[in-house]
Structures are given as C-alpha cells and as structure tokens.
Write a structure and sequence with these properties.
It contains one helix and four strands; from the N terminus they run ββββα. The protein is an alpha+beta fold.
Length: 67
C-alpha cells in the first residue's frame, strides 16, 4: 500500500520482491504486510537526479569560457 501513488509506484515482481519506481518529486510511505500479519513501513523520498545535468553544465563552462 502506498500513501501517495502519484510519487511512486510499487509492483510485486516475486513473492519476496517489490519494485519501487519514482514517478514524481515528493514523499510517501510504503507499507508491506508480511505472512505473519506484521507490517513493514518505509518512508520514501523521491528527488531528481541532477548529476548528468551538473556534468553537462561543467562541460559547457569549460568549452564556453565566460569573460
């Protein structure tokens, strides 16, 4: 169960495996029920990965030397 399905999607891919995909920036909670009825709760935060954009910006600054 997801607190906010607009932030992430969770797909059970195997009996003991869940795939979680970030869809939008934000926070939510993922709750997984175990066979014994106990719950596992995970607080999830989705943030954009800007490492590629940062690398391109550094490269551009090297190529286009601002006066």
């Amino acid at each position: 169960m997801l607190g906010n399905a607009e932030v992430v999607e969770a797909i059970a891919v195997r009996p003991r495996e869940v795939l979680v995909n970030g869809k939008a920036r934000g926070e939510t909670t993922l709750i997984i029920w175990q066979k014994d009825g106990k719950r596992l709760a995970f607080n999830l935060t989705v943030r954009p990965n800007t490492s590629k954009v940062d690398a391109i910006n550094r490269l551009l600054k090297q190529v286009i030397k601002d006066p």
